[in-house]
């Protein structure tokens, strides 16, 4: 006991003092041990920063060699893990031993795990996979959120805010400065995008790069050929508009793709396929078209507009490009520029004309009605051309946000059949339901509800569960505005089937509960408390 005790002469008299207080020797030795371990951990961290590189790592390697045999002892393990954490290259043999033991693998620092992951793609995939699933789930939860508002929607958070999300932060930490791991994550995202066609993977691709950019990790940013393009586009997304200066920059990047480097187009297209990028490009396109109407200029004469279309086309063609491995920009159809966009501009003109007509003194011939027919070409474009469909849908969102009921009801029938059912996609329906809250008062009108629900929503409810969910979300928000008779028929039409998912049933039950609360209770209807007050007589319903 004397031989292995703490050999300090002054302790000989202090220890009996502790005995008198009933403090066990074990507790004393444990506290000394903990104190020494803390000092050792501090010293290891200090060694990792002092002296010449070779010398400091030599010291740490020697220390690891001496202490590794005790790695499974809980009291010594933190020291061994700390030494490994500070070594840029842990000996292969030690890494294999850590990897083979689940508890050790779990206990080691992310710096050590990176060294294991870079040569074990499958293991890294197992770590990343739950995070990617969580990310997609978070995006879908926002799209189906019970809060419906035109002010706060899916695209409201700024890029910087989005990058603070848990998944992006965790992935950024897991990658660190390791280019190999970054490439692996990008490969996972490409594969999943190809397998599922889920565009949220494209968002994550851009967010991850910009998160590393925020931390100034030049080791990765300088080797990703999309870095400057993504950085510039990120600034546009923040402003929700592509201004002339940035448009020139983006064009410079696209024109600068050299022969033999076409593969970078696959990555650029994925960055442009991010819904936040598509949203910014489409909003900018609508704004440009309105400016062109005011300037009496045709779309083909606007280089800025043509660039927006070029980027939209590249983004929308991302899946095909990565799938076919044919890296060249998709060819733009001339008719999109010469026929479809002028058609959209003519709708803007119709609105201006109608507004002016309303203000003119009415003559004998009476007020001029709002145009109700849709040119056949418009409907055909929405069915057959992806870019036209995307721009057309954003135009409809634009007029809904302006509370332009006439234009909305005129163009609504064109949405029943669109390219790849884009009008029934979650992002469009999320934005549309938000904007429809601005037309809340119109829901009391039979004609409006019939056009919107019977003519559009209900045509797809039975075959597309997501549409069913979005209609129920909208009604939960606006049911008090809808005429009771219409509400009753909608309630019947929206009743879930046996095949309906839990989310639909849950929303339907919520709606039923809300409607039940609105109905007057039978007691209220049958019994009216007698009031001995001289009130004027009120006609009673025939049922009494």
Automatic annotation (TrEMBL):
Q: Which Pfam families match?
A: COBRA1
GO terms in the biological process aspect are:
negative regulation of transcription elongation by RNA polymerase II
Q: Which InterPro entries match?
A: COBRA1 (IPR010405)
Region annotation Disordered: residue ranges? 518-544
Q: Which GO cellular component term is one of those annotated?
A: NELF complex
What is the name listed in the Swiss-Prot or TrEMBL entry for this protein? NELFB factor
Write the gene name. Nelfb
């Amino acid at each position: 006991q004397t031989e292995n005790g703490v050999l300090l002469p002054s302790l000989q008299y202090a220890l009996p003092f502790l005995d008198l207080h009933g403090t066990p020797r074990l507790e004393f030795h444990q506290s000394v041990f903990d104190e020494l371990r803390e000092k050792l951990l501090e010293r290891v961290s200090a060694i990792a920063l002092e002296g010449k590189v070779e010398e400091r790592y030599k010291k740490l390697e020697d220390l690891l060699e001496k202490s590794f045999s005790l790695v499974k002892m809980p009291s010594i393990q933190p020291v061994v893990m700390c030494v490994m954490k500070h070594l840029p290259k842990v000996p292969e043999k030690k890494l294999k031993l850590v990897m083979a033991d689940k508890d050790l693998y779990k206990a080691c620092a992310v710096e050590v795990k990176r060294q294991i992951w870079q040569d074990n793609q499958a293991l890294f995939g197992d770590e990343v996979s739950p995070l990617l699933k969580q990310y997609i789930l978070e995006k879908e939860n926002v799209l189906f959120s019970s809060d419906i508002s035109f002010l706060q929607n899916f695209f409201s958070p700024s890029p910087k805010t989005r990058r603070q999300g848990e998944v992006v932060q965790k992935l950024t930490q897991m990658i660190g400065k390791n280019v190999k791991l970054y490439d692996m994550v990008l490969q996972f995202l490409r594969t999943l995008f190809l397998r599922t066609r889920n565009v949220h993977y494209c968002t994550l691709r851009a967010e991850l790069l910009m998160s590393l950019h925020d931390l100034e990790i030049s080791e990765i940013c300088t080797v990703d050929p999309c870095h400057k393009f993504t950085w510039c586009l990120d600034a546009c997304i923040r402003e929700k508009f592509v201004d002339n200066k940035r448009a020139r920059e983006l064009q410079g990047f696209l024109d600068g793709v050299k022969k033999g480097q076409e593969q970078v187009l696959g990555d650029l297209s994925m960055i442009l396929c991010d819904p936040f990028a598509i949203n910014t490009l489409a909003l900018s396109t609508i704004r440009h078209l309105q400016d062109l109407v005011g300037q009496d200029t045709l779309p083909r004469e606007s280089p800025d507009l043509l660039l927006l279309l070029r980027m939209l086309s590249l983004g929308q063609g991302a899946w095909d490009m990565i799938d076919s491995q044919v890296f060249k920009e998709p060819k733009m159809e001339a008719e999109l520029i010469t026929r479809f966009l002028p058609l959209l501009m003519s709708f803007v003109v119709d609105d201006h004309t109608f507004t002016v007509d309303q203000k003119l003194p009415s003559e004998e011939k009476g007020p001029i009605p709002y145009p109700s027919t849709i040119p056949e070409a418009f409907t055909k474009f929405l069915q057959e051309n992806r870019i036209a469909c995307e721009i057309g849908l954003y135009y409809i969102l634009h007029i809904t946000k302006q509370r332009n009921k006439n234009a909305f009801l005129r163009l609504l029938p064109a949405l029943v059949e669109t390219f790849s059912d884009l009008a029934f996609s979650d992002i469009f329906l999320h934005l549309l339901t938000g904007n429809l809250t601005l037309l809340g008062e119109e829901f009391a009108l039979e004609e409006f509800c019939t056009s919107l629900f019977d003519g559009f929503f209900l045509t797809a409810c039975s075959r597309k569960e997501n549409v069913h969910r979005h209609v129920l979300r909208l009604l939960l928000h606006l049911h008090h505005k809808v005429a009771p008779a219409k509400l009753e028929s909608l309630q019947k039409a929206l009743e879930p089937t046996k095949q309906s998912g839990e989310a639909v049933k849950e929303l339907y039950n919520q709606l039923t509960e809300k409607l039940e609360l609105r109905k007057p209770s039978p007691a209220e209807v049958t019994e009216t408390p007698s009031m001995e007050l001289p009130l004027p007589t009120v006609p009673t319903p025939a049922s009494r």
